[in-house]
Amino acid sequence: MRDNGRVTSATRRPETPASPLTPPRLIATDLDGTLLRDDKSVSPRTVAALAAAEEAGIEVFFVTGRPARWMDVVSDHVHGHGLAICGNGAAVVDLHGGPGAHRFVTVRELARDNALDAVRRLREAAPGTMYAVEQTYGFHQEPQYPKLHMEVPDTLAPAEELLAPDAHTAGEPVLKILAHHPSLDPDAFLTLARLAIGDRANVTRSSPSALLEISGPEVSKASTLALCCAERGISHDEVVAFGDMPNDVEMLTWAGSSYAMGNAHPDVLAAASGRTVANNDDGVAVVIEQILAEHY
Question: What pTM does this model have?
Answer without folding.
Answer: 0.88
